[in-house]
Amino acid sequence: MSVPGHYESDVWGRFFYSFLRKGELIMSKNLVHYDIVGSFLRPESLKKARAEFAAKKISQDELTKVENAEITKLVEKEREVGLKIVTDGEFRRSYWHLDTFWGFEGIKHTKQEHGYIFHDEETRNDSAQVEGKIKFNGDHPDLAAFKFLKTLTDGTDVIPRQSIPSPAQCYAELVRGKENIEAVNKFYDNETDLLDDVAKAYRDLILALYEAGCRDVKLDDCTWGMVVDDDFWSLMTEQGFDRDELQEKYLYVNNEALKDLPEDLRTSTHICRGNYHSTWAAKGGYGPVAKYVFAQENVEAFYLEFDNERSGNFDPIKEVPADKEVVLGIITSKDPELEKEEDVINRIKEASQFHELENLSLSTQCGFASTEEGNQLTEDEQWKKIKLVIDTANKVWK
C-alpha cells in the first residue's frame, strides 16, 4: 500500500511567495497566528427550529430559513471580533462527522445499540453504514452549506472555511461494530477497495468545494486521538487489532483523498480526543502517532489539542515538518473558566522549543459544539474565549 510523498501548496490569502534569493524561490508565511476550530454553540432559535422540524411541525424550507438567518448573524459576529477565517458554525449539522458520511452515496443513517462512550456520558446512538458502493454523486450537504457561506464572505476580507470529518474517521465509523463490518463485507471483497472508494469520494467532494470557491478545507479527525489512548488499545489488542497497521490505513486513506489537489487550496487537520457536552473520549499524548500523522500526512497545518495534562506534552510536535504550521489548542472550549493570558503565553513559549515560533498559532482546543448539544458554557463565555485567543496571539506575535 503506497503513500504519496509530501505535497507543497500555497495558502490563498495567507501564504505568498515573497522574494528570490540566490536563484531560489523563498516562501514567506504571513500567518494570522490565531484561529478557531469551527463549531459554535447553537442559538436557541435554531435549537427550537430543529426540534420543530424533527417533530414535523415545520418544513425543510422553514428550517433552512432559520439556519440561513443564524449563520448570517454568526459570520457578522466572527468578522466583528476580528477572525480572518470564518465558518458557518456547523449550524446545519447534528454531528461534526456523521452528517458528512450520510451525504455520500452508498452510506446510510443507522442506529446502534449504544452511542459513543465518553468519559462520563454516552452519546446518542446514530451511526453510518455501507449500503452500496461509496461515491460522491455531485450533490452533498457540505457543498450546499459552503455555497451559502461563500455568499456571506464574497467581497469581504475573510476566508470561508469548510470543515469535514477526515476520510479515516469515515472508515473507522464504517467498521465500528459487528453490524457495520457485516454491511461492508456485503459490498466490498477487500479492505483496500473500501479505503480507495472512501478516499475518492472525499477527493471528489474536496474538488467540488474548490470549484465552488473554497480555498480552505480542514479535516477533523479523532482517529489518531483514539490510537494514542493505551487503555483503549489494550481492549483493541484483545480483539486482534494492530496499532501500526491501523495507523498505516488511516494515513493511506487520508493522503489518497488529499493527493493532486489544486496548489491554492489550503488543507489542514484538527486532531483531538473527543468533544461532546464538555466531556472527552480518549487520553494520552501524541507521541505514539507522531511519526505517522505529523511526519507524513499531506496537510499544511495541524490543529492540536493541548488544553490540559490529558493531552500530553509538546514534545511530539517536533515531528511536524519545519515549514508546516502547528496551531496550539491551549484554550479549552469545554470549560467556561477563562484561562490567564500569562499562562497561555508561557505555554506558547514552551511549545516553541519544539517548533519554530513563527510557524505556531493559537486557537481553542476544539469547537464549542461538535454536536448540536454543545458544550457547557454560554454564548458570551464562548466569545470571551475567542477574544482571549486573538488578544493573546496579537501580544505574542505582535
UniProtKB/TrEMBL annotation:
One Pfam family linked to the record: Meth_synt_2
Gene3D superfamilies referenced in this protein's UniProt entry, alphabetically: 3.20.20.210
SUPFAM superfamilies: UROD/MetE-like (SSF51726)
InterPro entries cross-referenced by the UniProt entry: Met_Synth_C/arc, UROD/MetE-like_sf
Recorded superkingdom: Bacteria
Annotated ranges, domain Cobalamin-independent methionine synthase MetE C-terminal/archaeal: 37-95, 196-372
UniProt record, GO biological process: methionine biosynthetic process
CDD domains in the record: CIMS_C_terminal_like
Gene Ontology MF annotations: 5-methyltetrahydropteroyltriglutamate-homocysteine S-methyltransferase activity; zinc ion binding
Name under which the protein is recorded: Methionine synthase
Lineage, broadest ranks: Bacteria, Bacillati, Bacillota, Bacilli, Lactobacillales
